[in-house]
Amino acid sequence: MVELTDSVVVVTGAASGMGRSMALEFAGEGASVVVVDVDDDGIERVVAKIDDDGGEAIGVHGDVTDPDSVEGVVDRAVDEYGTVDVLINNAGILDDYAPVGETSLEQWNAVIGVNLDGVFMLTKAALPKLLEGDEEGVVINTASIAGKVAGGGGAAYTSSKHGVIGFTKQLSHDYGPEIRANAICPGAIETGMTEELIDAGEIEPMVAETPAGRHAQSEEVAAVALFLASDEASFVHGSAVDVDGGWLVD
C-alpha cells in the first residue's frame, strides 16, 4: 500500500481550484508533489505556497492534450523524485452547458481532449512507474456528477465525464490489485472554473434543493482525494465517489 508520507504525487490542473487544494493537502501530509498545469504563474504560486509551508514540490508545465508534454511530465517526476506513486488526473474544462445541437466539433474535441483523452494519455504514460515495485499504485480521476446523470453539463462535458468513470472502472479491472483506481464526482464546487456559473445563478436552484443546501469548497474534495490515496481506502477499488452535497440522492 502507498504511504502518503514520502510518496510522489502528480496532480494535473493543480494551479487553481480543486487541483491546487489537492496539491496543498498532499504536500501537507509529507508527499512530494508534482504540480502540473498550463498556467505557469499559477504553478509558481502553488509551489511557493507549498515551499513556504515546509513541503516539497516542483512545478511542471504540462498540456494533457499533447502526448509529448504528457511524457515530459512523467519524465520530470521520475528525474526529480524517482517514481510516481499517486496520479491525480484533475485537469478539466467546461462546455457552457451546450446541448448537442449547439456543440461544434471544435468544442467537442477540445472538451473530450482535456477531460478524457488527457486522463488516458497521462495514466498510460505513468503506468510503468505505478506498477513498479511492491507498493500499490494509486490513480484518482476527477469525474463529476455529470458522469452519472444528464444535466450537470452540456453534451461534451457529460460525455467526457461518463467516459472518465468508465475508464476508471476498466483501469481497476485491468490492473487491480497492483493499481487502485477510483474517481471523484464533485457537484457544485466553488472554484475559478465554476465562478461564472455560480454568479449567473445557473446552478443555484439545484444546489438549494440538495440536502447540504450549499456549494462545497475545493478543500472538501481534496480531503476525499487524500482518503482515497491512503491506506484507509485500501479496499476501495473502481468506485466513483460522490462529493455533491446529496445532489444525486433522488
From TrEMBL:
Ordered alphabetically, the record's keywords are: Oxidoreductase
State a single Pfam family of this protein.
adh_short_C2
This entry's Gene Ontology molecular function terms read: oxidoreductase activity
Q: Does the keyword Oxidoreductase apply?
A: yes
Q: Please name the SUPFAM superfamilies in this protein's record.
A: NAD(P)-binding Rossmann-fold domains
- Superkingdom per UniProt: Archaea
What InterPro entries does this protein's entry cite?
NAD(P)-bd_dom_sf, Sc_DH/Rdtase_CS, SDR_fam
Q: Which NCBIfam families match?
A: PRK07231.1, PRK12826.1-2
Which family does this protein fall into? Belongs to the short-chain dehydrogenases/reductases (SDR) family.
This protein's name: 2-hydroxypropyl-CoM dehydrogenase
